[in-house]
Amino acid sequence: MDLQETQNTLVRLFNDANAQFHKMPGSAIILRYIKSSYQDDPVRSAIELFLFLFAVRYMLSPSYSTQKKVKLTEEEIDELVDEWTPEPLVAAMTPTDEVENEKRPILVGPTGPKSKLSNGRTVTNLASYNFYNFVGNETLKEKAVQTLRTYGVGPCGPPGFYGTQDVHMKTEADVAAHLGVPACIIYAQSFSTISSVIPSFCKRGDIIVADKAVNFSTRKGIQISRSTVRWYEHNDLEDLERVLQRVTKEQAKKPLTRRFIITEGMFENIGDVSDLPRLVELKHKYKFRLILDETWSYGVLGRTGRGLTEAQNVDAREIDMIIGNLSGPLCAAGGFCAGSEEVVEHQRISSASYTYSAALPALLSTTASETISMLQEQPEILTALRDNIKAMRAQLDPRSDWVKCTSNVDNPIMILILKPEVVASKGWSTKDQAQLLQDAVDECLTNSVLITRVKAFPLALGTNPRDEGWQPPPAIKVCMTSGLTKKETEKAGITIRHAITKVVKSNKWIR
């Protein structure tokens, strides 16, 4: 075949292909697009052609592995398995921990103001969060049984995946109405509420300014968020303002970031409360968002138990996020986050604990709604508890020569620390104080009063103890309840005071 015939053949094939192409629907539009594209922007046509050819080549290329596989013999595999040592999930127990575990009392039966131990003794229980003795409330028990028979034990699914029931929606509405905010979301676990809320809003590069004394679950949430953290001295709002000023100055010429103040309404390990009006003022002044953990103040402070906002007369809508606890004072389980509609709806798809954990059992949701209603309709419940708090404080502080109470006057969790002047005169270390107070707890148990003490935050694996950061001071924790009479409360207070005195004056601690 000579050159002329070859050209004729190619022309004929091209004409046939062109004729077939013109028969296709939309061919005229494609040709017009190509012509106008080439005329107006030939560079784009070249790029599109290159991308088309690259895509064709990529689709036709053979698949290959990006990993070089090394085949091991059975002997080599067994040897590697024998050499592998898994890291422990938790730190090894210390001798002190082992001794404490051996002495730890075990309750038998329901928890109440008077509880039975496994050794058969009955003790006055001042170590549980049964503040209003809701555990023994027959009305609540009956409601729980009815709910159990109607809904079963649990939804067995996350809220977003067939786990939400009408009782959950009612509890959310009840909490929101009680606080006076637009919306609320409930979680199935109290501890993981704030530790999920924080990382759902705070990300790497964001700024968190937090009180040094925030509780362990809040610290976990801050850690998970991977945000930049600035700490301020406990309840020192002048120091907080200095930190806010410094952060604002540092970020002035940087890209805009989200900024949060995180603190507790009533501090778990100290017992005092925040100055909420001042916090709101600083929040607006420096343009930060405020996350308030009311785990221990909701259901306790205020005329109807609405928490710190009610006690200090602050509009709850001024707080961006209010985190609370349904498992403590309300005698149910889980927790909640209340705020604007946007804040709540964001968590339904971005909060790990809400998205991936089974929803709260219906009977516990009903219990939370009922106890909220009781606190609003029966203010005498709160009055009875506060009367017992006053009776206990009268026996311990200022009567005791050795300890003082750092808790707010309305806090049913009384935190008792050794007086600084006593510690200084005796030369006791932090470890000595913790052991002395544990001896006092044991002495109280000997006299049929069950109390506990504040424990140090656990260290992460591999963390040097010198890098542990802020730790709560050694303290005794006495949890009040309205289930005891005033005389029983005073008797327990006298027992605690005498036990502390006996331990401090024992030969073991005389120096």
TrEMBL record:
Protein name, per record: serine C-palmitoyltransferase
Pfam families: Aminotran_1_2
EC numbers: 2.3.1.50
Domain of life: Eukaryota
Matches recorded under InterPro entries: Aminotransferase_I/II_large, AON_synthase_class-II, PyrdxlP-dep_Trfase, PyrdxlP-dep_Trfase_major, PyrdxlP-dep_Trfase_small
Gene3D superfamilies in the record: Aspartate Aminotransferase, domain 1 (3.90.1150.10), Type I PLP-dependent aspartate aminotransferase-like (Major domain) (3.40.640.10)
GO CC, any one term: membrane
Record keywords, A-Z: Acyltransferase, Aminotransferase, Lipid metabolism, Pyridoxal phosphate, Sphingolipid metabolism, Transferase
GO biological process, one term: ceramide biosynthetic process
Family per record: Belongs to the class-II pyridoxal-phosphate-dependent aminotransferase family.
Residue ranges annotated for the Aminotransferase class I/classII large domain, each copy included: 122-492
Enzyme class: transferase
GO molecular function, one term: serine C-palmitoyltransferase activity
Pathway: Sphingolipid metabolism; Lipid metabolism; sphingolipid metabolism
SUPFAM superfamilies the record matches: PLP-dependent transferases
Cofactor requirement: pyridoxal 5'-phosphate
